[in-house]
## 1
Amino acid sequence: MDAKKVPDIIIGRLPVYLRTLRHLKEQGAHTTSSLELSRLVDVSAAQIRKDLSQFGEFGKQGTGYNIAFLIEKLLEILNIERVWDVALIGAGDVGHALAHYQGFVNSGFRISMIFDNDPVKIKQQIGLLSVQDASRMVEVIRSAGIKIAMLTVPASAAQEVTDKLVEAGITAILNYSPISLNVPQGVQIQNIDPAVGLQRMTYYLV
Amino acid sequence: MDAKKVPDIIIGRLPVYLRTLRHLKEQGAHTTSSLELSRLVDVSAAQIRKDLSQFGEFGKQGTGYNIAFLIEKLLEILNIERVWDVALIGAGDVGHALAHYQGFVNSGFRISMIFDNDPVKIKQQIGLLSVQDASRMVEVIRSAGIKIAMLTVPASAAQEVTDKLVEAGITAILNYSPISLNVPQGVQIQNIDPAVGLQRMTYYLV
DNA sequence: TAGATTGTTAATCGATTAACAATC
DNA sequence: TAGATTGTTAATCGATTAACAATC
């Protein structure tokens, strides 16, 4: 039971640190510093040190951080030493792209089931998986004990499907539907909407 | 020349308000309130009012906000009354999904060119567009005057391609590559990395 | 040792909330 | 009129930065 609650904004930066540390490691580096990381991730060095210090003393004065060690620590903190099974809901274009996405390798996640309600898509093979009938989704997810879902259904269906996912025991949803989902407290949501990302940038254009 | 600079964190919420207002409008509503919006987007009513008040007085005491009017205002503020041409770089799975994505309709964006460096993909047809040779990218983007790019190339190529995009005059990049890009000041970046989204949530799981 | 860099404190800066007068 | 809801102010809360003693 750690006393202090770590702000979510800090948690959100940790995966970016992790990604960058792995990148450095691939390039053969063994050690880095808050200053070097700062240049790579566009967060101030002081903030990186402060963020990491929430969880322990991972560095050494004078030398900085051992990259392999810090990666290990971040994996522990983020709960991704293990591999999480993920349910993918929606076998459209975005669902297919996620199913084939190589970036999940070593990220701590594996898509282990895919659902759709379109009879044409059900039974279709995507990679090693076969698309399952969404009508059995709650049952299958619950009995597999899956906690994480990626949602790539149309906006019109998203809330309804989300309610079912919650019913099935899902507690984290990566939401690709362009709509704000309503979930009970304790269920995590991360939204990915390309239009929102683009619109946020055009404010600054001319 | 508006005096006060509006914080980016506020700008980031505006597209979500816009999305929600359009949703309400589709459902036939004409008027809404900060309280109703608050329940829909998970931002406090006070904050919604404060955010909007940065740009003008759009509501009426007692009745709230006219939805159509507020949508118009947000389109103006976000600079998306017009349609922006967007260059898509990378014709892999994610690039294909974006090229076929229906969610850009009325969002203010249109993919108008696609590039890849893979000879097998060049000349391929994706929807109405034909994949162009990345070697001509800088020239083509610059002469078309395109300012916005979506980047879906592998991490290993992302920084190099980004440098070329900047050279071509791109000032806003929606980055799907799992890497932090380095760009000169004034170039906007929004990052979309599903692994980062998922890892941020697993911190809270068990 | 001298130089480098951490972890942490205190100061600053910025964002959110609560409250309410104004007014539709 | 009475009820509802805005826009805004002041208070609170939280996040970032600057600075530096500790120490590798």
## 2
Amino acid sequence: MPELPEVENVVRSLAPRIVGRGIIEARFLWPRAAQGEPDGMAELLSGRIIRGVRRLGKHILIDLDVGLIDIHLRMTGKLLFGEPGPYARAVLQLDNGTLVFDDVRQFGYLVWRAADPPAGRDALAATADEFIMLVRARRGRIKPLLLNQSVIAGLGNIYVDEALFRAGIHPLAHGLSRKRLERLYQAISAVLSEAIDAGGSSISNYVDAEGRRGSFQRQHRVYGRESEPCLTCKKPIRRIVVSQRGTHYCPRCQRP
DNA sequence: ATTACTACCTGACAGC
DNA sequence: TGCTGTCAGGTAGTAA
């Protein structure tokens, strides 16, 4: 579920409670959350000191005195303080409390790594020139390209649809001009920073590490608005499938 | 390089 | 109340 703005809010809510703390013990309640190495991971994590926490694309990276923890929430992962519930997959006992990795669908993971995971250029960190170069080096349709984390990291289904709408670009467009890519870059930067400021989008169950929901879902212009009137031209928003993902766009405002 | 399809999972919701 | 099918903020693997 979480994309860049949600992960950013998780990181910000995590920082004041975990940076500088020690990890007393790590327990994996679901071995696959440790990518099949629960004992080894628990061993590597216990006794470590947390030096910092940051975001890379959709990854949460917790820097330790030795290596780091790489957490990916995938669709339903959450990090929460407090007692583990029925969907707890891993528990970090810190010297000041308990951090629980919760994940209904069990797609996410929490693993120790010696160094950062591979990732494309972070969508918020990229400059306009970098963004344009990266996109122009590829041939395919714009939506699948923006979803490809090894090119630009952080965008997911909601924010791609929202950014393409704001830029007036059809999700299947390709070979875009420099001018249209500049407009797309501005749209991406704007939608991501507005969403971060709104605490992210909580459509069903996203919450940050303090359990707070976001409110950006109220500012979605196309995502989840199939058949509703376009906020610009009143034409009904259309839903198609692109890359096996529900894709929302305005057939009048977004031309190929 | 790009696309298409399957798989990993559970839960919410619509329609019968 | 079921039951069935569809959908979901993601990504890996495999094949064409």
## 3
Amino acid sequence: MPAALMPKEEVLDRLTRVFREYGYDGASIARLSAATGLGKASLYHYFKGGKQEMAGAVLAHVGSKFSALVIAPLKQHVDPERRLRTMTYGLNEFYDQGGASCTLDLFGFGSAGELFQPQLKGSIHRFRNALAEVIRAAGFDHNKAETRAEDAIVTIQGALVLGRATGETSVFQRVLKDLPERLLRPA
Amino acid sequence: MPAALMPKEEVLDRLTRVFREYGYDGASIARLSAATGLGKASLYHYFKGGKQEMAGAVLAHVGSKFSALVIAPLKQHVDPERRLRTMTYGLNEFYDQGGASCTLDLFGFGSAGELFQPQLKGSIHRFRNALAEVIRAAGFDHNKAETRAEDAIVTIQGALVLGRATGETSVFQRVLKDLPERLLRPA
DNA sequence: GTCTATAAGCAGATAGAC
DNA sequence: GTCTATCTGCTTATAGAC
């Protein structure tokens, strides 16, 4: 395979930015082309399945970044509070300090919803399980841990929605700061 | 003004359903036409400003339904716990038991975001103020009330996002059930 | 692997008959 | 007030040269 002008990693980063800003339907090939600097035909050379395959690749790319930044810290061999604190740093970076949208949100409706719901469901499942295990490690029972883990995801998603609607990132910042204590405080 | 074949109220309800299911960019005129049973030209007769005006009218329509179902209960002359409980019934209906998306979410990005952010911001502001006043009436100070009100909105939005991504409404139902107690419990 | 040029179809929007 | 027919431009996607 001959070298491309731009590493696929970089291409995916740029595609991701467009999908996250405009959503699936709003991310036109023209915009994706401009953002990558590649002509439309070059994009179709990379992704023979067209826009749908681009979105799928973006989803996988985003998923692997999320694993590295957010899931991995939850599996470290340190105390629960420390794991959750490290995770919040990862979340802060992953969501660009609260200024980025989540693909869980943007790919969950309309044409994208029909195509990608199974993947979204899987991502949520993995995140909730990793969170719940940390909370169990802190001494909470299975049900309590599952519920708190779910609440954490709800809170993160909600804060991102609010931040986007208001144009402010302060809600996300506050929520992130309080998250570890909230997940571990006595019932 | 001669009578129309369908009351504008009914037209707005149907437009709302499409915008809430597909988002702004995904809601094509063809779909809006099919959902209302009106030809494209008839839609443009109602809304001379085109799709942008349709979305604006939908936003206003949704806003007034939200006022009646959710804000009004918060201003009743009964105890705070009762006001919040009644509000959750309104939320349940407004969001179709958790199966409907929120325009705060769907109109917050892409082309819609640029057009409607001010209105979204206003809606959030009104909801948060109404919630905070009830929480203050229960004896909490201004800051605590504001924070809890904001958390409530975050939680509702997040639960809707999660519900859409997983195709389940159980998260929304649980969150709604716990909301009054959570907003009023001792600090 | 990248490009220019172009195809085919759908988008939003309008004209004008009834 | 509603319709059919139509316009223009943008959409996704492809062909084929370099």
## 4
Amino acid sequence: MNTAIIETPAGYSGLSWTPVGLVVLNLPSPSPQDAEIKLREAIEGLPVKPGSKKEIPGSWFELSSVEREIALYFGGKSVDLEFPVDWGYYTEFQKRVLQKVYLIKWGQATTYGQIAADLGSPRGARAVGSAVGSNRALLIIPCHRVIARNSGLGGFGGGLDWKRKLLKLEGITYKE
DNA sequence: CTAACTAAACCTA
DNA sequence: TAGGTTTAGTTAG
């Protein structure tokens, strides 16, 4: 498990990855030290033996390109942040949900219920909510673009203030 | 296996 | 808008 701390316009972010793809990308913290603590906590919380299978040979990962894209993102640019994700750390259901979320483009939004319907469980919105909450690769898996259909904007692991900030950055509106 | 959790949605008034 | 009901998957015991 590789780890690094990168600098972004919004602070310092910790990330970790395997030869398969990204595992963790945290939201920026004010200091590198804070970012490191958050990263360590995120890694400790990972399920034990990951089911990572097919490894992509060669190095897909260039820290500098991640750093550059994240910087563009916080600068308000419409970037896709399409980096590979190591899905081996999620349960089957979480993976199905998060892979849907992964496809949501910059500036777009969907609802928990819509994802549930896409997965064939039209009434599974609540289960989708708990699965989305397991996302560890923030921004890369844009779970902030998933909002509640009727009341409110749902929740967010990194705090609702962050969610509002990210949605505003992308010009996404929601009911409040 | 059950029961108590959810980052939801729906129904009624 | 507010409150209660329904709902599906995860997690703890």
